[in-house]
Amino acid sequence: MQSSAKKKTYLFVLPWPLNAIGGVNQVVINLAREMEATNEILPLVLIHEWDATHPIFEDVHGIKTVRWRIRSYHEDMGLKDSVMFCLWRFRFAYKFRKFCNDHSVVAVNLHFPGLQAFAIERVLKGLSRKIPLILSFHGSDVGGISSASKMQTAQWGKLLSNSNNKVVVCSNDLGKRLVDAAGCDIPYFVIYNGLNVDSFCSMADESTSDGDRMILNVGKFDEIKGQDVLINAFSEIASKYKNVKLVLVGGTGKALPRLKALCVEKGIDNSVEFYPDIPHRRVSNFYKKATIFCFPSRREAFGIVLLEAASFSVPVIASRVGGIPELVSDGENGMLFTQDNQSELARCIKVLLDDPVAAQKMGERLSEHVKSNFSWASAFKKYLDLLENENAERQI
Questions:
Q1: What does each C-alpha distance from 120 to 41, 99, 125, 286 come to in angstroms?
Q2: Domains and CATH numbers, the chain
Q3: Three-state DSSP string of the chain
Q4: What is the dihedral of CA 349, 354, 356, 360, to 10 degrees?
Q5: Angle separating helix axes 304-311 and 280-289, nearest 10 degrees
Q6: Under 8 Å CB-to-CB from 374, ≥6 apart: which residues?
Q7: Judging by beta carbons within 10 Å of its beta carbon (0-12, 13-18, 19+), is residue 10 exposed, middle or buried?
Q8: What string of pLDDT tens digits covers the 396 residues of the chain?
Q9: Contact 189, 172 (CB under 8 A)
């Protein structure tokens, strides 16, 4: 058997710890586990951490990680920052070259790329062995490009349009947004997020519902996720449906105090429950008990939570934004409503509550669609295809 020291390594790069709550981390964790299952390529996650001036290895969620400082680089930074970057790059490039050789790194894949992407690209260019750079965008990272300075936007355009680099987006809609943000043609690859349905469903315990019907939302408590729209919509129907409660699960965000205050203002606080910062392994319990899943985001590249709801055949209602219509077909396997239209959302909720048989059929159709077309195994294969295409090009 081939020893692990001789196996090839796929290097993920993240701007935050792997144990942080969020969809991007779920993508990296699940892709890494698919790699481990093949026993052919080893995943290693590089975490940008300013205080880690040398590589610090540890296991997180059973995945090998390394914390290491990566400086930002942009062409319009000041003289002092430029000097500090050059000094850092000189030292880091030597260590990184040895690191890549020791671990037989075959690809560097940045997820949620920031200004560190320019530093990594410059370091990779200096290596004697070509290592492909893959940049995976997930949503709000594209917004960072849209709001960048004119010089930085041009720099992004140059990086992303470089044929030596591979650009991945999680929906066609996000790809179009990326092209608009960079202001130039970008050859991107669409790799949809996935879900290991059996594994996710197995996380749920044996507890049963308390008898009330549940409208569920899962997502960070943030203005962009539109939980205020859902609360307002629920307030329109709450008096008619006494046995229905609204449950909101998500990472703590700036909007949480305002959302709680809105429930009090609308007089529905006794019918609304908040569960902040629930570990991902426990979220499946909420889907298992849910009657309807509502996803009222104002902007969404894709939405892994829709796949999670589908794994339990929960009927979904979602805003018609971003990449959501690439997954949910209105009236067929779910319901879509116009962004920010609380009355339209309230009507959709009533339709599903009043016709549970039709709601169940929608949930089942979405579940079959997800099981057939959205798996982490499929996503992993498409990432491997990028590497195989890269190797083929290099052999020409």
A1: 22, 13, 9, 40
A2: 4-194+376-395 (3.40.50.2000), 197-373 (3.40.50.2000)
A3: CCCHHHCEEEEEEECCCCCCCCHHHHHHHHHHHHHHHHCCEEEEEEEECCCCCCCEEEEECCEEEEEECCCCCCCCCCHHHHHHHHHHHHHHHHHHHHHHHHHCEEEEEEECCCCHHHHHHHHHHCCCCCCCEEEEECCHHHHHHHCCCHHHHHHHHHHHHCCCEEEEECCHHHHHHHHHHHCCCCCEEECCCCCCHHHHHHCCCCCCCCCCEEEEEECCCCHHHCHHHHHHHHHHHCCCCCCEEEEEEECCCCCHHHHHHHHHHHCCHHHEEEEECCCHHHHHHHHHHCCEEEECCCCCCCCHHHHHHHHCCCCEEEECCCCHHHCCCECCCEEEECCCCHHHHHHHHHHHHHCHHHHHHHHHHHHHHHHHHCCHHHHHHHHHHHHHHHHHHHHC
A4: -30
A5: 50
A6: 192, 193, 194, 195, 307, 327
A7: buried
A8: 344 457 899 999 999 999 887 789 989 999 999 999 988 899 999 999 999 999 999 999 999 999 999 999 888 888 998 999 999 999 999 999 999 999 999 999 999 999 999 999 999 988 888 999 999 999 889 988 988 888 999 999 999 999 889 999 999 999 999 999 999 999 999 999 999 888 889 988 877 667 789 999 999 999 999 999 999 999 999 999 999 999 999 988 899 999 999 999 999 999 999 999 988 889 999 999 999 999 999 999 888 999 999 999 999 999 999 999 999 999 999 999 999 999 999 999 999 999 999 999 999 999 999 999 999 999 999 999 998 876 544 432
A9: no
CA angle (289, 237, 302) in 5-degree steps: 55
CA gap 184, 157 in Å, rounded: 6
Tokens of 91: 């030292």
Instruction: Give the amino acid at 167.
Output: V
Report residue 290 as tokens: 């849910």
Under 8 Å between Cβ of 370 and 178: no
What are the residues whose beta carbons fall under 8 Å from the beta carbon of 180, sequence distance 6 or more? 146
Stated pTM of the model: 0.86
